[in-house]
Amino acid sequence: MVTPAIFSISSFGEKWVMKGWNLNTGSMLSEYTGDYEKNEKHYLSVSNGCILEASRGKPTINVWYMNRYNKDLTGRIVAPGRINAFDATNDHKYICFSIDKTVYLYQAQSGNLSVIDYHFQTVSVVKFSNDGRTIACGGEDGFLSVWNLGNILCGNTKEPQKLFTDHCLQINDIVFSSGVHRPWIVSISLDRTAKVYDLSSGNLLISILFDFTLTCILISKNNSELYIGQNNGDIYQINFNDIPEIKECHLNDMKSFEKFLGHTDIITSMSITQDSLNLISGSKDTTIRIWNTLSKHCIKIIQEKGEVKNVFFTYISSLIFLNDYKPKFLFKPIKLQNNFKNKLIHVENNNKKLKILLNNQFNFENIDDNLNDNENFENIENLKYVNKFLYELCLKNYNFRISKY
């Protein structure tokens, strides 16, 4: 059985609380707590029976297994610095986060870390596309860079796939469309504009100016509607089919737009159901509101004790709450690598000797020039042994292939 669920993070007193709600009944499914810290932003991702949470300004990504109801933290991924922005693919195999002006791509199953160092100022937002193949990064420098996941994994991070420099202030949020034939990307900024780009051509389609600061953005699953949250509590709905054929316009120049009225403070986060019929919004006014996107009426209000930091909609299976449920994979610790180790090679071989050799997990991390140190000397000898074995193995396989011809 599959249940439509809302996950939310709110803060009050000395703690922050993460809860899971049944969208249809409004009943609470699960609850998790964490230490309170005065963070304006909490990031949230739910998939494969796991919940990931990251707080702006903290160097950790918290992991919970959903079948451990009301229990302590299951695991923690330690980042190499204080996280400023965070996102994960739908299957949680790849996690992207920023520290200052550097962006990191973490491979959950291996722990390998790839680095993007392109922006001039702090990267304020990172987002994956719906298919997980593209990453967009927005910074305080107003730059919006778009990267191909495959290129990052291969170490090609000198130049982005696309670069947009139309914003003049910090980028607050980014969203990808779900379309394949005509992919769009939309960004909002402190300059109070929402800019729509065509990813195929790299052209700016339109820039829309608003009267208030824009805080979060969302596109419906059918790519027909654009939802934009503001710091005054209003949510605007814009139909892509009604966008005028001009490069720049004010909101009032649009042919038609709709408003969702009810929140009284900053809109912090939005999410939408798969059928695009229900919009979920969280606000600093301590409420989560569920809206009907056709009538624009609020059909349900969930009252929290403190400011709502994030909301996330997903479908969950009842099987994940069983005690013997195990996630598809575990999150490996992040491997901190030097620049010369950025290019990663994955080796699969049926040779038993090689498997035994690789499973010994020799430690070469602390080798330095001091050969008088017994530990370093032992590590160097191990390294020589491994190199010799790999060389002989490669030479043997190479000679075998030549002999076949």
UniProtKB/TrEMBL annotation:
Stored Pfam families: WD40 (PF00400)
Gene Ontology, cellular component aspect: nuclear pre-replicative complex; rixosome complex
Gene Ontology biological-process annotations: DNA-templated DNA replication; rRNA processing
Keywords noted in UniProt: Repeat, WD repeat
WD repeat residue intervals: 116-149, 260-301
Classification via PANTHER family: WD REPEAT-CONTAINING PROTEIN 18, WD-REPEAT PROTEIN 18
Protein name in the entry: Uncharacterized protein
